[in-house]
Amino acid sequence: MEISTVVSLLDARVVCGHQRLSEPLRAAFASDLMSDVLTLDTDGLVLITGMCNTQTIRTAEMSDIACVLLVRGKKATPDMVALACENNLVMLECAYSMYRTVGILYTHGLAPVY
Amino acid sequence: MELTYEVEGGNFSKAGHASSSIKKVLKQLNVDPKVVKRVVVALYEAEVNVVAHAYNGIITARVEQGSVSIEVRDQGPGIPDIPLAMQAGYSTASAKVREMGFGAGMGLPNMKKNVDVLNISSQVGVGTRVELITYF
């Protein structure tokens, strides 16, 4: 699934990384616990989270996660946006709950990590 | 090549700065991306531990042909029982650290998973030294 499809399905806002929207995603992982995210070694991942701080972006950077999707109406802070842009990450914001977000992406074929 | 960074305890806004910088250097040196990821995930876990638990710390990374050796040395409360701290799920993290998405007791086990050599020594009331070595 392309990142642009995620944007369409969730009526999400693209905060940064517009130039990467045509890239494919292989899987999704939903967590507010960055410790769990750091244990993953799957490529082509979208991180679905309501954890809204700079460490979310740092975690994505270290884990080579291409796309961070903030759910529950969370808004990225200016520090987060700057860090995401610096690291060429795609950052999306979505008003849906994590449960609804995950359900939509799963039913449209985006695979889980495990 | 040797790189040194200072880490400020308690300052989560800067946590990950050293790991990010070292990642950029390793990429510039054309180190295999899978190796880079292993190194920086382990280092980031260690850096967050310093921010979460210690007063301050120093990270020293030595990049050589075929290996990356990193020493993370902090001044802080130390670890009274290292085998206990290595157990997945054991944590002494504060509520503030948990609010940041960490403190689940997975940092040290994840470091061990990602590096070839993990050495930890600690003195209660003085500080902790963590050595991370990755071969490639």
List the helices and strands and how they pair.
The complex is a heterodimer of chains A (about 110) and B (about 140).
Chain A: H1 3-10, E1 13-16, E2 27-30, H2 34-37, E3 45-49, H3 54-62, E4 67-70, H4 78-86, E5 90-93, H5 98-107, E6 111-112
Parallel strand pairs in A: 2-3, 2-6, 3-4, 4-5
Antiparallel strand pairs in A: 1-5
Chain B: E1 2-8, H1 17-28, H2 33-53, E2 56-64, E3 67-75, H3 82-85, H4 95-99, H5 107-114, E4 117-123, E5 127-135
Antiparallel strand pairs in B: 1-2, 2-3, 3-5, 4-5
Helix pairs in contact in B: 1-2, 2-5
**Class by helix and strand content of chain A?**
alpha/beta
Examine the coordinates and then state which fold CATH places here, giving the name of the CATH topology of chain B: Heat Shock Protein 90
Beta-strand percentage range of chain B: 25-35%
Strand content of chain A: 15-25%
Radius of gyration of chain A: 12 Å
**Mean of pLDDT of chain A:** 97
* CATH architecture assignment name of chain B: 2-Layer Sandwich
Largest sheet of chain A: 6 strands, mixed
The parts of chain A where pLDDT drops under 50 for at least 5 residues are: none
Percentage of residues assigned to helices of chain B = 25-40%
> Which structural class matches the secondary elements of chain B?
alpha+beta
Q: pLDDT below 50 for ≥5 consecutive residues: which ranges of chain B?
A: none
- The helix content of chain A, as a percent range, equals 25-40%
Q: What general form of chain B does the structure show?
A: globular
CATH architecture of chain A: 3-Layer(aba) Sandwich
Q: How many strand units of chain B?
A: 5
Sheet of most strands of chain B: 5 strands, antiparallel
CATH first level of chain B: which class? Answer: Alpha Beta
Organism (chain B): Breznakibacter xylanolyticus
Domain Histidine kinase/HSP90-like ATPase (chain B): 18-133
Protein name (chain B): Anti-sigma regulatory factor (Ser/Thr protein kinase)
Pfam families (chain B): HATPase_c_2
